[in-house]
Amino acid sequence: MEAPVEKPNSRRSFLKSAGSLSISSLLGTAALMTMSDDARANMEWAEWFQGNYRLMSEEEKALARARLERRYSREYGKKVVVDGTPAQEGVLMGYALNIKKCIGCRRCAKACVEENNQSRGKDQEIEWIRVLKMEKGEFSQEKMNQGYPEGLGIQVGGNAYTPVGDVLEGEHYYQPDAVPEKDAAYMPIACMQCEKPPCVKVCPVRTTYREADGPVVIDYNWCIGCRMCMSACPYWARRFNWSDPNLPKEAMNPVTHYLGNRPRMKGVVEKCTFCIQRSRQGRYPACVEVCPTGARKFGNLLDPNSEVSRIIARKNVFRLKAELNTFPKFFYFMD
Amino acid sequence: MDKLKRFAVDYVTYVVKGSPAFYAWIAFLCLFILCLLYGTYLHAADGLRYTGLTDQVHDGLYLANFVFLVGIAAGAVTIVFPAYVYRHKGLHAVAVLGEMLAISAVLMCILFIISHMGRPDRLWHMLPIIGIYNLPHSMLAWDTLVLIGYMLLNFVGGFYFLYMKYTGQPLNKKFYLPLIYVSIVWALSIHTVTAFLLNTMPSRPMWHHSMLPIRFILTAFAAGPSLIILIFLLVRTRTRLWIDNSAIDLLATIITYCLGLSLFLTLSEVVTELYANTEHALGLQYLMFGVHGFTDLVPWFWGSLAACVAAFTILLRPSWRSNYRLLAVACALAFSGIWVEKGMGLLIPGFIPTPIGEFTQYLPTTLEIFVTLGNWALGFLILTVLLKGAIGILLGDIAYAKSPQGKTTSDAAGISATPELM
Q1: A48, B58: Cβ pair inside 8 Å?
Q2: Which residues of B fall within a CB distance of 8 Å from A3?
Q3: Res. A166 pLDDT band, cuts 50 70 90
């Protein structure tokens, strides 16, 4: 068991020297201007005192990002960029997934982990994308006399009460020799980026919110770890950092966004953001880029000529658990 | 101001002095509080990794105890309500003990929430003005508001009463009575909002029904007075304060009604859910019988049901419930039965299966159990101290007239006046 990182002396001296300053931006400025031995402790304190990202002024946001860049660069031993590109006007990000084309290879899940700096390791693994494998049910002669309820056979002759066809309750720990497996269908899930997100509603401190261009994001520095959002999410899209994430230095992706893939800390919730660090720069999310079958499509829902808009206009499209009125921007379709 | 200072000094001096049994009890509690301190250190240093919680079942023992203790806090109103609205003499004499219980229960709720949170160091984010308070949307924000409000109401009401009794002044009814009436209604609100915290989430079908708030209130008004009766019986034997039989009998009647109704609601839920047996009933099915061979919670459910039915059977016969030995057994059964029902019986199966249909069992770790015991111990320490102080004042052991300054300054008329409202 490791002792917590603590520097009592530097903290005390910091408190002595900067005790009178209470505004977070001032703390940040002080920390950045004087990178003395106490700088690290100063920066941690400034980070601790900072406000909710959404409510910060542009200067405060820039300071908060600069502070993080210095901390991350030091921690991971490379130049880390924490981007703050805001939502662009006229953009509403949307996602469409062709469930007929998914072969269950889970390259998307792995690419997501690498792109988005998720925690790795046996007990600390976090994956934002889970692929559900759903076996096809079947009618069979052998079951003809089982009836319903099972064992009693009151309704003799019927055997369709077992799951037949694709059901949502799937297995996401499958370990096949090769994919796709016979008689299996795959249903990848991740955050649905709801237009009416239940998770945002229940958050007591408004640390998670919907950005103007669509994705639901989290200010990891403001999250208090109450996990109400995890209870409220009908898609099981949110993950909690039960400990300090295990993110190897060499594997860390240094191109980050404040609201996206920057390294998280223990005790906060995280989830898919449509790769906000990529998508706001006009790039595809990592899962779209890596998908070998082209099952994943991403684009601007407000642009009628974008791929997703065309899919929604022309294909059979559905959303998961539509009856809950969460209005996801993640659509499933089939050819 | 001087009187207030004396009150504080006298109160503290009285409370810290006690018999060897008292010190033994405090030492016993401190053992568990040490476990709590160690556990809290581990949580702060390494996060919640030493708990049995997972991304699938991410709320466990801590949140379950929080939910239960909100009920205990609300249950204190079963003393205050009859005492002040129906002017019940036996309860009126000890109503302040109910307020002390409410204060301790809310403090325990806060302790459990701190253990539950991933980042308790960021609790200030919830403070108005310097933080953000997501009103009116977040039920957790409402819950915090009503809980803190309830604690303050009971703190002000309880200690105002004790202070007036201490100084021998009559109560200012215009100040005190509105406070009491507001706190009575407020007590209902705290457990209602706690139920809303859970049942407003369609993602968890096990909780998503409108019966949850009333069931919470009924179980609270059974578990709360059960604890109160046990405390009253202890107070009668261990202190010189006599609590009238009528007070205990009324509380026993309240438990009988509420426990009976809550059993009826359990039955209603079982029939409603299992008759059609949709996928939304999987949580209940898992709880009652187990699903796919996962049966961890089955003994808890049936054990809790058996305890509640047994308690109800004892309470139902007036001749049995007026036998205080049997009554104590019934109260202990009801209290533990409802504790299981709200934790293992309601909170945990709400997460099983997950919204995507995954069954993950949850077993609290040793650390979690000791942190839980530690939180209870700290709560009981607070409760012991508050009850001891209140009883000392009710008995007249702590009084301004008895303190060295009081003897010289107070006049005889002031001493004899007692804060009676009846």
Answers
A1: no
A2: 45
A3: low
